[in-house]
Amino acid sequence: MSGYDAIVDRYRGVTGEAPEGLWYAPGRVNLIGEHTDYNDGFVLPFALERKAVVAAGRRVDGRLRLLSLELDEDVDLALSDLAPGQEGWSAYLAGVVWALREAGHDVGGATLVLTSDVPLGAGLSSSAAIECAVVAAYCDLYGLDIAPIDRAKLARVAENAYVGAPTGLLDQAASTLCQAEAGLFLDCRSLETEVVPLPMAEQGYEMLVLDTKTPHSHVDGEYGTRRATCEEAARLLGVPALRDVTDLDAALARLDDETMRRRVRHVVTEDERVLRALEVGRSGDLAGLAPLLTASHASMRDDYEITVPTVDLAVETALSAGALGARMTGGGFGGCIIALTHAGEADGIGRAIARSFAEAGYATPEWFTAVPAQGAGRLA
Questions:
Q1: Cβ partners under 8 Å of residue 147, min gap 6
Q2: Where is the GHMP kinase N-terminal domain (predicted)?
Q3: Angstrom distance (rounded) from CA 57 to CA 158
Q4: DSSP summary character for residue 160
Q5: Cβ-contact 80, 146 below 8 angstroms
Q6: Cα–Cα distance measured from residue 60 to residue 192, given in angstroms and rounded to the nearest whole number
Q7: Is 37 annotated as a binding-site member?
Q8: Is domain 5-195+374-378 annotated with CATH 3.40.50.10860?
């Protein structure tokens, strides 16, 4: 349990005994495929080394006690009182227990002590990391034999129905299913997956992840509005979802609303970029990812209109400072960018962006080099 002594000690402090184990789930970077998941399309994320970790143990009193190490908060709930609409960080943990019980799993209470180094509001899926760590813990604590993709679905139910964020399956699938040194291609309709090798270090590349320090939230209206627009466009075009549009020009000609046309164009072309990225991964030449990343950002900026000035400046600066390709990652309206760079150049590009931000009067960004990591599991 080295490295997580603080949550073990906190658990001992509130229960008088050691936890039954430690479970984790990582945050994720979406390499490409933004706002395609809820359109039955394709995504290609990879998991981060940064993760949420819970120290957990069962209770027999029908209660759920939730503690956050970083926030120094303690929430005590009766299982019978769990209901959608709960607010705050604890909803992401309680929602998983609610979702398990709603699905018919005979699970009881627990004490869960949470710590996480996934940045909040940065588009790196801090919420899914928490949810998937709790799913992993509960499956082991209560002997539940739930397939990995179904674990991701349960975590999504917690986010959608309990927390109230209308996200697709991308985040939870990535946090649960990803493998080290690889991305995860996911068909969001069939739920078929393919492991996509990403040997960045071997090929002389790095992936910069830079947090613009512009917080975003999936619960706000912009995300839901775009999802509703896509659903209405699919209805008008007579297709189950926008992933079924096979002739983009013909589809756009049938739509009168210019905003709707832009939204459709982004989703359809983004799906095409994900499929091309999959072929790049299969071919083993990761340089081919660079133009796809940059084109994806332009589409999110101009057609889906989900970028903000800080994010656009970060991408522009990354490219001018030598990045091979760059894009916003995550739901939009803030958060992080990613940039594919030559090995040894990521940090310098991060510093160049920090200088641009200082000149523009923006907050100082934070950045790190991402290494594709393993999905959710047990630490100890």
A1: none
A2: 92-177
A3: 20
A4: I
A5: no
A6: 38
A7: yes
A8: no
Does the annotation flag 124 for ligand binding?
yes
Summarised one tens digit per residue, pLDDT across range 255-299 is 999 999 999 999 999 999 999 999 999 999 999 999 999 999 999
Cβ atoms 48, 376 nearer than 8 A? no
d(CA 141, CA 369): 34
In tens, the pLDDT along 172-186 reads 999 999 999 999 999
Report H helices in the chain.
Answer: 5-15, 90-102, 126-141, 148-157, 170-177, 200-203, 221-237, 248-253, 258-283, 289-302, 309-320, 346-360
Active site residues: 171
pLDDT 10s digits, 208-252: 999 999 876 554 688 889 999 999 999 999 999 999 999 999 999
Closest CA to 327 of 309, 342, 307: 307
Task: Give the model's pLDDT for residue 184.
Answer: 97
- On whether 90 is known to bind a ligand per the annotation, the reply is no
Superfamily of domain 199-370, CATH level 4: GHMP kinase, C-terminal domain (3.30.70.890)
* Residue 34 known to bind ligand: yes
Q: Which of 209, 155, 157, 162 is nearest to 47 (CA)?
A: 209
Q: Is 376 annotated as a binding-site member?
A: no
Overall pTM surpassing 0.85 (yes/no): yes
Residue type for 1, please? M
